[in-house]
Amino acid sequence: MKTYLARGQSITFADEDAPPPLAKATINYRRIQICRLFGELVADGVSLSELPDLQAMVRPTMVYRGLDAMLRRRGGKSSGNIHNMAYMLLVIAKHHAKLRDEESQRLKIAGKRLKVERQGMTKKNRERLSQFDDEQNLNRLLLLPEEILKIAQEKIPSPTRAASLVACQL
User: Fold this and answer.
1) What is the pLDDT of residues 39-95, one digit of tens each?
2) What's residue 170's pLDDT?
3) What are the residues whose beta carbons fall under 8 Å from the beta carbon of 3, sequence distance 6 or more?
4) pTM
5) DSSP state of 116
6) Of 28, 44, 112, 136, which sits most exposed with the smallest number of CB within 10 A?
7) How far is CA 57 from each of CA 4, 19, 29, 42, 51, rounded to the nearest angstrom?
8) For residue 79, which of 116, 49, 111, 125 has the smallest C-alpha distance?
9) Phi and psi of 6, rounded to 5°?
10) Cβ contact 67:93 at 8 Å
11) Cα–Cα dist 138/144, whole Å
C-alpha cells in the first residue's frame, strides 16, 4: 500500500500509463478505502496470509468478496461509497498491480453494476436547503451583503479594514 500511495504523490515520466499525481486529500481517502477493504475481507473470513500485499487485495475474487460484504451490510443496495471503492480498486488493479486486461475488465463490469443513478438532490441536501423555503429566511440571505457593507461603513473608520472585513464576510 505504501508503494502505491507514494507513487500517487509524484509525476512519473518513465511509465506512460501512470495516472496523474494525486492531491494529499485523495491519497488520505484512498488509504482509508484500502484499509476499509482490508477490514471487510478479514471480517469476512479471509486470512492475513491470503492478503500479503495490495496486489492480492485487488484480484477480482477478493474485490468481489469485499464489495459483497459491503453490499450485504446495506441490504444488497449499492451506494456512492461502494461504487467509488470499486472504481478505486480498478485503478489500483490497472496501474499499480498491473493485472491482466481480462481481470481488469471484470472489475470494470463490477463497478458499472454498482453505479448508483441519482436524480436530483440527496435527502440531506434537500433538508439543508429547506430553510430557504421560508421567504423571511431567503430575504435575510439575499440582503446579507448589504447588511455587512452597512455595518462595515458605520463601525470601521479605515476604508481598507472595512473592505477587508466585507471581503472576508462575503
Assistant:
1) 989 999 988 899 888 888 888 888 899 999 989 988 988 888 888 888 888 888 887
2) 67
3) 54, 96
4) 0.59
5) P
6) 136
7) 13, 20, 17, 11, 6
8) 116
9) -65, -35
10) no
11) 10
Give me 168's grid cell. 472576508
d(CA 149, CA 156): 10
**Phi, psi dihedrals of residue 154, rounded to the nearest 5°:** -80, -35
148: its cell numbers: 455587512
Q: What is the DSSP letter of 15?
A: -
Q: How many whole angstroms separate alpha carbon 48 and alpha carbon 167?
A: 54
What is the three-class DSSP state of 54?
helix
Q: Which three cell numbers stand for residue 63?
A: 474485490
Query: In 10 A of CB 157, how many CB atoms?
Result: 8
Report yes or no: 81 and 114 within 8 Å, Cβ to Cβ: no
- Asked if 58 and 99 touch (Cβ cutoff 8 Å), the reply is yes
Residue 120: per-residue pLDDT: 77
Alpha helices (H) along the chain? 2-7, 24-43, 54-57, 60-73, 80-95, 101-114, 123-129, 135-155, 159-169
